Amino acid sequence: MTWRPRLAEGTAPVLVVLLVLLVGLAIVGPAYHEPSGYLALLKRAAPLMILAIGQYFVIVSGGFDLSVGALVTAGVVIAARLINGSESATARVILLVLGFGLLVGLVNGLVTTKLLVPSFIVTLGMLLVLNGAIFLWTGGAPRGALSTGFRTFGRGSVDVPLLGDVPWSVLILLAILVAAALFMRAGTGRALVAVGDNEATVRLSGGQVDRLRLLAFVLSGVLAAVAAILLGGFAGVSAQVGNGLEFRAITAVVLGGVLLGGGRGSVVAAAAGALSLEALFTLLNLLGVSGALESAVQGVIIIAAVAYASLGSGGRQRLRSWSKQRNGARPAQPASS
Q1: Which ranges in the chain belong to alpha helices (H)?
Q2: In this structure, which of 54, 193, 271, 288 has its CB flanked by the most CB atoms within 10 Å?
């Protein structure tokens, strides 16, 4: 028996969309006539793709995480304040930022699972708490500076045999994506999808629903911290660095065919959705379309994805039911002589 690679459900459409966008970039932008242009695109998209992977874990298990954008901002601001240009503080501050992301994810998960507060409300509250705390701490103007070592992960590259200089952010993204894909193929990943599909069945079969959802929020928090490290290196210190990233991540996930409400979707498709979104905005920018349309485009994508999912599940069932009723109501035809 030979093993054949198979795309998960919902992956093929987003890959087609991504291919069309990449071809469009090659036609419109001279920089994309060379592989280096696409490598630069992947470098810019890496933080959003990592956020989308984390958001995927939460959405596929039946929740939402609206706190990731504020967590990215908090991670960058905290790192700049604590490092303050000191190379010697880089390693421990990176660990602190990752630990802070884990803590935020843990709080989100515990409040959601133990206090039974909807994840939408919990993470929206966390977004407001983080934004308020950062503004109070900085007065709206972040202080400090990131060290060269810290910024290397977002800006620097490493010489890879046969490939040349590859950005650190791309290597980190690939490592996370491979690990996430392997995780979703394992038993815990399958159980996470099952929780979003039918929580009651998982409970009856002895599955630890609360632990699985808690794990999803922790993974989302940690990956948001990783995105903060990459964005801090790439874009520098800003109190607005994470603004709107939570909605971009959700848009990327639904563009990748992941069902809002959980139970269906591929982590690879979610990452491809994030890359497609970045490619789309880059193409619009090259065509001279106003950047103010980005929010409108995200809104259209979310509405269209939800409508398509609704049509795909309930719509087809209603159509089959209507067809059966119509066929059953037809009068019997007289037998031919």
Answers
A1: 11-28, 35-60, 68-83, 90-114, 119-138, 148-155, 168-185, 187-197, 199-204, 209-235, 245-255, 267-286, 293-310, 316-329
A2: 54
